[in-house]
Amino acid sequence: MLSAFFRIAWLWCVVPLIWTDGLLASDALEIAQRIDASIDAKLRTEKIATAVPAGEAEFLRRVYLDLTGRIPTADQAARYLDRSHASQRTQLIDELLASPKYGEHFGRVWRDWIAPAELPSEGNGGNQPIAATRKLGVWFGEQFNQNESWDRLVYSVLTVDGELADHPQALFYSLVGTDTGIPQPAGATRAVGTLFLGLQLQCAECHDDPFRTWKQSDFWGAAAFFRNTEATFDGRYFASVTETFGKETSAKGKRSSKKTTRNDRAPNGSITIPSASFTNSGTVISGKFPAGEALAAEARQPLRPILAEWIVSPENPYFSRAFVNRMWSYFFVRGIVNPIDDFRPDNPPTHPEILDLLAAEFRSSGFDVKHLIRCILNARVYQRGNGSDPKSAPQQLAKQADWFARYPLKLISTDMLFESLKLALEDPGLDLRTVDPALSSKFGESTPIGDAYQEFTRLFETNENDPTDFRHGIPQFLALMNHPRIGDGGKKVERLLKAKLESTAIIEQLYLGTLSRRPASEETDEAIRFVQASSTPRVGYNGLLWMLINRSEFLLIR
User: Fold this and answer.
1) 284 pairs with which residues across the strands?
2) Is the separation of the CB atoms in 207 and 273 below 8 Å?
3) What's 54's DSSP letter?
4) Cα–Cα distance for residue pair 207/210, rounded to 1 Å
5) CB contact at 8 A, 468 and 411
6) Backbone phi and psi for residue 402, each to the nearest 5 degrees, phi listed first
7) 305 or 462: which carries more pLDDT confidence?
8) Alpha-carbon gap, residue 413 to 467, rounded angstroms
9) Which of 32, 29, 79, 26 is nearest to 56 (CA)?
10) Which residues contact 482 (CB under 8 A, 6 or more apart)?
């Protein structure tokens, strides 16, 4: 049955795939060269000039933020900038991929892609799974650091069965498509489609999608795989996930001290379209893969593993392409297919040959995430400047006829800013809350309602779908400019003064530890004059550090 499905899906797929069955993954540098050859050929055809290559300092800061979610320390920056060999960029990419910070960062990235902006809550403003969501990010980070293959990682998420304490990924079903934490087949279907397949199935939930090929039967056929997924609660919030069968599901999706269940008398392997879908409610739909044949399930056969095996299969025409496109978008702001979760015939890829190449390479490597990243980051297209250099012909780049002629200017994410501020100030316990939590009983609505990290993310929230969207305004700038823990230099200035370094050395350390570059001679001269005019050296260096943190150069990935 599955082979018949794949023949159908193959014909339906948006763009023909390049199959590499039996071939080993290629060298990352070779793939990078093929990426560049394809992009450069298109740019030449369109007569678009490219930005000059990024300088070493520019590349250093960019790749640290993109791969580890933080700037380099002053010592790390100095060591790299003092290198002088042709392969130092490739070597740095490998070093960062081997760093625990790589997994920690991408764990947070995937946590934020999965979790809604407002987490599900119990009742009106009740308990929210804040700690559990963070643990989900930690779990993803551990998988990335172990270089778990993407197919096995996704399979683990989709088939999870057990206690949240032992399986943090079990939270997935309570985060997607629900505001109560109760797993819903429709929510799971929407999330799996967008996150793992690059497909927007949601418009077919209530009717046939007029703009895509999806029918309502396709949506609910996929939802049938999640029909028996249930959560249990420990009295406060979600505690576990399991898959039940048939008549064991009896309640109607309401919160319970024991289980949440669905009232659906349809046979296992099928689902009844609920009344909330408006059209065709009450119709029983057999389980089916998107654009595939109906599933013939046994009476008590678990369904999620069947769907998961199809999703992660190398033969799946969507799985590898969706991940490649999402990762490309992470680095370049827009995907080869954009929006990244809307693969369809009338939304073709801008560079189909690159999407085919990377998807085939990803499959051949055994879904090796680090290998895919090496292929992309070693390409010249990633290592270009952002067009601010006059030699980059900005008048041509401004046309943006091809997004990949330059590296996009991006706002660093909330997590990146938080981690980078802690490093710049050498303050791992950085807390920018303006109200002392110990005095919370004396204050009203101005009292912090979360820990330092939660309050920081609330203030510096960014658009995770568009890093070019500069959302910082008066509240954010006032916090960076006026908070005493930013203005007092943290432990950084204190340590540098105790080391009895020369003024030029201290200034260099402050630049390296914030902007990841050494100051120009005029910047050094200006900083020396500023420090000399200050009441004390400590005040002067504090002011210099404050200035560097509040520069746009600190807030942007260039």
Assistant:
1) 272
2) no
3) P
4) 9
5) yes
6) -135, 115
7) 305
8) 7
9) 79
10) none
pLDDT at 231 over 90: no
Residue 436: count of CB within 10 angstroms of its CB? 12
Please compute the mean of the pLDDT values over residues 180-204 and round it to a whole number: 90
Distance in angstroms (rounded) separating the CA atoms of residues 83 and 73 = 16
Interior angle at CA 295, CA 290 and CA 299, nearest 5:
140
Do 516 and 71 contact (CB within 8 A), yes or no? yes
Q: Please provide the distance, in angstroms rounded to a whole number, between the alpha carbons at the two ends of the chain.
A: 50
Write down the residue that tokens 């049938």 correspond to: 224
pLDDT tens readout for residues 385-440: 987 654 444 444 444 445 789 999 898 999 999 999 999 999 999 988 876 655 55
pLDDT mean over 488-498? 89
pLDDT (tens digit, 9 = 90+) per residue, 36-90? 999 999 999 888 889 999 999 999 999 999 999 999 999 999 999 999 898 999 9
Contacts of residue 256, defined as CB under 8 A and 6 or more positions apart, other chains included, come to 233
Which of 211, 207, 201 minimizes the C-alpha distance to 290? 201
Domain segments of the chain as ranges: 128-183+214-312, 410-557
Q: Measure the CA–CA gap between 35 and 378, rounded to whole angstroms.
A: 10
Q: What is the DSSP letter of 487?
A: H
Percent of the chain at pLDDT above 70? 82
How far, in Å, CA of 515 to CA of 58, rounded?
9
Q: What's the longest Cα–Cα distance across the chain?
A: 82
